[in-house]
Amino acid sequence: MDFRIQFFILSAILLVGCVDPEARPYEEYVEDYERLQNGETLNNQSTNNQSNGSTNQNTSNQTNNASNNTYPCSPDGGASIDITIRNATEYPADLFWVSFDCEELQYGTLFPDQVRSQQTFVGHVWILKIINTTLAWGVVEEGTTELVLGEE
């Protein structure tokens, strides 16, 4: 890879750490970047494996494990809901809400099995990423209290 591109990527990573106090440490980004450069995957699932879990009254495990960025935009509207979002992957990952225009807005970093309390809306989409690689995404469903990202 061209040195200028590597410099740009690392500069952008450093800038995120300066702007977002919940951003992951620089060293973790570099380790993940090196894994990607060596052709390694960042999750323990196959990159072609997309799975939807079951949904019950209290939790929603509707997640999709994917290394591609194919997920819907969050719909405008929906009922307000308070949930917890859990990182069920084995990697620290950045949490993003997908807006109505499919923009990804970062909401901090979740370490493996870490949870975050979050006010959101039914139908909204949340994703976990490491350096532009989507590990998992999920949709908030009505009547749920937890969105588990990365669990099959």
How does this structure look, described?
By secondary structure, this protein is of the alpha+beta class. It has a domain at 45-149: Immunoglobulin-like, CATH 2.60.40.780. Helix content is 19%, strand content 32%. It has two helices and eight strands. The strands form two sheets. The protein has a five-stranded antiparallel sheet, with no helix packed on it. It has a three-stranded mixed sheet with strand order 5-2-8, with no helix packed on it. Strand 6 and strand 7 form a beta hairpin.
Sum up the structure in keywords.
single chain, 152 residues, alpha+beta, Immunoglobulin-like, five-stranded antiparallel sheet, three-stranded mixed sheet, von Hippel-Lindau disease tumour suppressor beta domain-containing protein, VHL_beta_dom_sf, VHL_beta_dom, VHL_sf
Radius of gyration: 15 Å
Give the CATH architecture of the domain at 45-149. Answer: Sandwich
N-to-C terminal Cα separation, in Å? 34 Å
Structural class: alpha+beta
Briefly, what CATH class of the domain at 45-149? Mainly Beta
Let me know the average pLDDT. Answer: 75
The topology string of helices and strands comes to HHEEEEEEEE
How much strand content do the residues show?
Answer: 25-35%
Helix content: 10-25%
CATH topology of the domain at 45-149: Immunoglobulin-like
CATH superfamily name of the domain at 45-149?
von Hippel-Lindau disease tumour suppressor,  beta domain
Shape: elongated
- Sequence of strands across the biggest β-sheet: 1-7-6-3-4
Largest sheet: 5 strands, antiparallel
| Poorly predicted regions | 43-63
How large is the count of helical segments?
2
Number-wise, the strands total 8
Organism: Microvenator marinus
Pfam families: VHL
Domain von Hippel-Lindau disease tumour suppressor beta: 81-129
InterPro entries: VHL_beta_dom, VHL_beta_dom_sf, VHL_sf
